[in-house]
What we know:
The chain is built from 16 helices and two strands. It is mainly alpha-helical. It has one domain (45-241, 249-366): MFS general substrate transporter like domains (Growth Hormone, Chain: A, Up-down Bundle).
Amino acid sequence: MATESEKDNKIRELQVGHAHLKFPHMDEENGDKLEDVAVGSDEPFPDGGVQAWRTALGGFLAFIASIGYLSGGSVFQSYFKTIVLPDSSTSDIAWIGSVQIWGCYFIGIGSGTLSDKYGPALPLALGTFFMVFGNMMSSLSTTYYQFLLSQGFCVALGMGLIFTPALAIQSQWFLKRRGFVVGFVMSGQMVGGVIWPVLVNRLLNFEGVSFSWTLRIIGFMQLGIMLAATLLVQRRFRPQAEPASLPLRQYLTNGRTMLLTFAILLMNLGLYVPWFYITPYAINYGASPSMGFYDAAILNGGAFFGCYALGLVADSGLGIFNSTVAATLACGAVAFAWIGANSSAGNLFALHFHVGAGTRSDWFLER
Length: 367
């Protein structure tokens, strides 16, 4: 067990650059409770109240408009290949969604710093502009590179600016309920993943609306949802006069941090595949084009419950890391069972539980 002086040194290291937090003489690694590790310097975490739940609702709405749009990407993958860009390969078209995922994580690094310095409203507003502008420009696009620039890079920039503030700001308001609240915010992705495919299916396949106007309708809806989200999300702590720089050298030289990063990388390499391929994959195994669009919505509907289940299990005592390990093992088991599926119903069942079991387990590690 670490001596008292060693604990004091750890506490002083953690306090550097985190003036709004104080760390009492407790160490989570030695078995102490999470709520005893970090408390606000002025008052304990609210873990509730009007402002806290407004912020959680704002994050939920932001995920519907942004990451939820990404979750319904398989409908665009299928429609691009069959109607809009028939001469482009499936791999080329997949780069559009892949760029969006890259934007969430890579640009999210800068948006987190921007949120810390100026508050979440600025990156959320900028993200709204680029995301909506990208979809509007996509509605005017006719060639592959135009779609890649508009629906790919421009929308990715918007999603990246929205992604981190909408999720990370919850940690300022919640501690004991943080797993549940993070699951609630994340479930907005799944709600959006249900809404957007169904909307696109109805507009394109039933109402006869053009693809261009479908994208414009989506853009206007995203604008309204993000306006509400930006007004609801609030920060709890005032920004520091001189924000501390990121200790990148410590991150890159810490063995446990690098091992965790590599593990999350491997997890994400497999986790996102169903979101972009379920629609064309289901159609390939006999599903109708309309049912293929609904498959994406059904997939996200199952993943919705996975968000809450993992958060509740983590908060109930199993812990963040143990919950993630359990979810990852469940995902792996279903992935191997998926090999034996050779029909539309079998593939839908396997994909449904594959994503439902492992949905966003890595985000709980980032909380």
